[in-house]
Amino acid sequence: MFAISRRFVLVSAMLAIATGSIPARTGAETADIPAWLQQHVGTDEGQIAPIVLQRARALHQRKRREGVVQNPCYLAKDATRPSTSTNGQPNPRFYVICEQSQQFQAVSSGYGNGRSLPRADFSNNRQCARHFSNAEGSKLTMGGTYLTAETRTSFKGYYSQAGQSRPFNRTFLLFDGEGETRNARERAIGGHEAVFLKWQCRGRKPDSAYADEDGYVPYGRLVDYTGGRSNGCTTWSSEVSDDIISLVEGNPTSLYIYPESEDIDAVARAVRSGTSPSEAGLYWNSTCLAAIGEPKFWPKRQLQPIIDEWRRSLPPSEPLVLPICR
Known about the structure:
The protein is of the alpha/beta class. It has a domain of 213 residues. 21% of the residues lie in helices and 29% in strands. The chain is globular and about 65 Å long.
């Protein structure tokens, strides 16, 4: 039996504060869901919305039948939920589900921050995502179906901890998509720890395997953006990132991200007509829907020319030369 790291915490004891826009569960949606998993289905904090679980399970079962996936665990993400919980902590909106071992984990995750360009503003705020797209360079989340792929670990620089210089290497888990998400690799979409190294200077360290030809390495400070925004990738806290990556490394599984383009367009139409998503049989987190007004999907065919034109308008960039550390 496959087991996840014990550092994950079961969410059955999480706050039962209602933040969704649909009933916690319906018989039709949960008929074939095991009893132990049904207690985690709903729109409260720490629960998974019925439509998200339904699609994530269907994807995983399909990929298992096709022989593409052997991993008994699968992943899901609800990008309609807010970044912050009612207790002020990062809000759980990414799910690791292992039905064989009867384990359900809900953890925080980032979503795409987007951009504000002269011809189009598709930037997202820190709390709720309004804009979504599959355009390369949009820095936006794209809902749909994915498979986890290989990992790549890269050196980001050195940082100081307890008076010592330490290298920071971050592992990136690639995603392969299908349909509207099939350009996931072109977009460099995947999952990684929600930490980056903000470069400040370069120091001489000729004995380092990461030193350049002059013996210098970049130094900086670690910035943690757990539960916030990203460049379109899925990001996790330092506490769970290694566990999730080790769960699927060499043993790929399915990942379903909600919402897809059709969901976004349907919710937007309902809002414009004065109908709540729940009345229309749709789902969107009610807290975020109140904050964003209505969601917007930017198809690649519409947004890509705008991004490409903006890129062509940029002046040539000078090579970055960090100052010498003092």
